[in-house]
Amino acid sequence: MCASIAPQEALRAEDCPLERVATAQHARYRMGVITPFYKCELSAMAVVGEFYGHVLERGVGSTLSNQLYQALRHEILRGRWTLGERIPSFKEIIAQTGLSRNSLLRALDQLEAGGYVERIRHKGVFVKATATHGNRSLGTVVIPVPADAPIESHHGQPSVETQTFSRISVGHLAKTAGKLGLRTRIWPVGHRSVWSSGDGGADSDLFGVISLFSPKQLQRFFKPRLLDRVVYLGTDDFLARPCLTGDPFTAAYQVASELIKHGHRCIALLPSPALHQATEDLVRAGIGTAMRDAGLSAGPEALPEMPGPDAPIPSDATAAFGFCGECARDVLQHARAAGFRVPEDLSVVSLQEQQGPPCDGLRICGAGYEWDDIIGTCFDILLSSASSPPRSVARLTFDPRVHEGNTVAPPRDSSVFLGVVNQ
In what order do the strands lie in the sheet with 401-403? Predict the structure, then answer.
């Protein structure tokens, strides 16, 4: 899981799960250096200290005092300290960060000038009401979604599908935005949609955009001058930056390993037409690596491909792997309509965790992410883009974890094989 938005820290090679990196492509994906799309230049930085996960370092184009100011402001806006609460003392911050007293004073001067804190002599530094901007709004964050995209309910809140993550709760986005003094607006877009003042307010009210679209697609909907503050969320387009993305290779590896642990040797694959070819290749590589690591074949006979969710299940397959949440749900429904019992006759998994309501009482096993961290980082990048100098972020990859669900069970003839795998 990516804990901070410092790009140099998040994109270092040692952050990759090396035991799961089967190809150089995945290593380059995790580091944001898939050529020729983007090359990440990692220069030698002098790390001075750390403050609640924010790395403070020399040589990044920003003074140490400004980095500390950004870190303190970020934690205030994230709600680490409540209204009127005292933040850590000078001694505590200096001990934690390793910065000088003068750097800390300059950072506090910036916070006080912005109305985030109040210094009281002999008592300390306290969070002010304006730290959450009161009732004053900084503007609107627009989230364009395809007009024909299904917007499902998740815990009573609308949610939309992303490419590399699972479904994202719009209510979660709106709640986080509200704490930061921002409004959110879901904007369904068609082929000819163009943002204007009639689409929800004057252009000056537009604070930023959280895009599920690629940069090329987004440019069709907004004038270039309105795209100064954009964060791409869950898109698998490597030209998109700054972008927060999942790790399809590791997600596929983990979910496939769950099937292998239960004794499955033949897994039917159902690709998603929504994925770019590079992402689809990473998913296949993750599944194949999991099979080979377990000493199994990863050839076409062990990983047959289904042309569509309503296609017949390959006769030797004991499990089906959907490359997106919708694919897996479709496979489950068609399998049950064809007389298969899930998971007794057929296990069904997805690259993405199921966040909506159970499908006929079944919750599909898939890979999920820590949405609190992802959404918090997303808004932190938007807010820091308004600072001077803005934080430079390329592509941040978050680590997945498996949500088991109840759609996986051992195949009927796996008793001998399970003993081999679990040794």
Answer: 267-270, 319-322, 347-350, 365-368, 401-403
Instruction: With H, G, I as helix, E, B as strand and everything else as coil, classify residue 257.
Output: helix
Cα distance between residue 130 and residue 178, in whole Å: 13
Give the pLDDT confidence of 85-99 residue by residue, as tens digits: 899 999 999 998 889
What does the alpha-carbon distance between residue 116 and residue 383 come to, in Å, rounded to a whole number?
A: 14
Q: Phi-psi category of 396—alpha, beta or left, where left has phi over 0 and alpha has psi -120 to 50?
A: beta
Which helix (H) or strand (E) element contains residue 395? strand 395-397
Pick the closest to residue 166 from 241, 285, 247 (CA basis).
Answer: 247
In tens, the pLDDT along 206-246 reads 888 999 888 998 988 888 877 878 999 998 888 888 999 99
Q: Is the pLDDT of residue 38 over 50?
A: no
Residue 292: predicted pLDDT = 96
Three-state DSSP state, 49:
strand
| This prediction's pTM | 0.67
Residue 98 has a CB neighbour count (10 Å cut-off) of 15
| Cα 15 to Cα 20, 28, 160, 396, distances in angstroms | 12, 12, 29, 11
Average pLDDT, the chain: 77
Q: CA–CA separation, 53 vs 263, rounded Å? A: 40
Q: Would you state the structure tokens that stand for residue 118, as one six-digit string?
A: 């109040």
Which pair of tokens denotes residue 280? Answer: 């689809």
